[in-house]
Each structure stands twice: as C-alpha cells, then as structure tokens.
Amino acid sequence: MEEPTEVKAAILAKYEITQDIYRQRFRALEVYPGETPRELYVRLKELFSKWVRPEQKSVKEISEMMILEQFLRMVNTEMEVWIKERNPKTAEEAAQLAEIFISARRSRGPCSFSRDQHFSRKSGQLLHW
C-alpha cells in the first residue's frame, strides 16, 4: 500500500500542480467578498507553504528561490520563457542562462534583457515601454 505522501505526489503530478502553480496562485490571490483578514492570512500562509515548503528548505534556499522569482519577473518575456524551459535551480544559474541567451542573439543586433527596455532593430535606439 502506498504512503499518503506518495499518493498525494502522484495526484499533484497527474494534474500538473507544481510549486510554480502555487507561486502563481499566491501572487494572484485576491480578497474574497466578506472575507476576514484572518481568513485571507490563512489562505496566504497555506499557498506560501505549498509554494516555498519552508519546513524542507534552509533560509539560503528560500532566499535563492525568491531572488530567482524576482530575476525572472525583471527579464523580458522571451528570455523568461527560454530560461524557465531550462529549469534553473538558482538565480545564479538563471543569470548564466541569460548571458547565454544574450550572447546567442548578439549577431541580430543590440539585445536588452530588461522587461521594460527594448531596442528598435531598425534604428538601434533604446525604446522605453
């Protein structure tokens, strides 16, 4: 007979409920009509625990996870997707992947990695969006 944690892991895998799904739910959480502050806190804490799993990680690992998330939020969307496809475990790995991404695209002209800065390929001018 399977352990409860194994069954739970199998169900989560089947429905593709990953840590990133919990992160997205945590970040997108809204207050329900009529919800009390305590109820909101409980929902936030539950999603945070499922996302971060603090009982299984050190402070350094949690810090790295938060830095990685912020790093990915700051790079342009194309780069973010490319980096996520390579599944970096740390922000340092993500930064190394970003360098590879930029290096591979330099032949096309200037390449900015920031989400809010883009170069016009025609003029070579930096555009602020």
From TrEMBL:
Residues 23-99 form the SCAN box domain. SMART domains: SCAN. CDD domains: SCAN. InterPro entries: SCAN_dom, SCAN_sf. Pfam families: SCAN (PF02023). PANTHER family: RIBONUCLEASE H, ZINC KNUCKLE DOMAINCONTAINING PROTEIN-RELATED. This is SCAN box domain-containing protein.
